[in-house]
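Pipeline run #58 for the internal structure catalog. This entry was flagged by the ingest filter as a single-chain record with no existing model, so it goes straight to prediction. Upstream metadata was stripped on purpose; only the residue string is passed forward. Reviewer on rotation: M.T. Logging verbosity set to normal.
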Amino acid sequence: MRENQTYVITISRQLGSGGSYLGQKIAELLDIKYVDREILLQGAEKMANQESFWMSFVANCSYSWPYVPPSYTMIAEDRLHDKFGTMMQRVAKEHNCVIVGRCAGFILSKHQKTINLFLYADKEWRIKRVQELHGLTEKEARKAVGKNDSERANYHYLHTGEKWRDATQYDLCIETSKVGLDKAEQIVINYIKSRLEE
């Protein structure tokens, strides 16, 4: 990697597969910035004053422990897609970072050092995990997983013209229900380190 060239890890994921959890763990282990939908939404609300916004936004780009799962519902935010893209491009230009969701891999496809991950898992495993994380009934979690899968696929296709689960868009795909989140974390960290040595 050339000196002063930032790197970005993007994570696309199915609900309940552990994408945001692993994103925060990776950011913590590598001591880099962390960006997800919640952080982008907060930033989009404050974009009027560009420089004060930027300082505030970057300060919020961080993982937080104990882990708090993101909302399992999609928000009608197509109108914010361009703002999200602008924020992601700038933080990627200035900082090493992990960015979860929001078609980040596609938006940052011209960034010279981007590693795109896709995390997926067995549906029943995801349903159980969503139940536990959000305190839902099995019926509620099943409905949330099905609805979220459909909405993410539609959002991705709308903004990229590509199928969300097409493995050719990603550098590494992991079925987290087969290896577990701890092992997935090791796999991802080892892969990132090997890529950064290129």
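catalog note: The longest helix spans residues 138-160.
catalog note: The mean pLDDT is 85.
status: ready for reviewer M.T.
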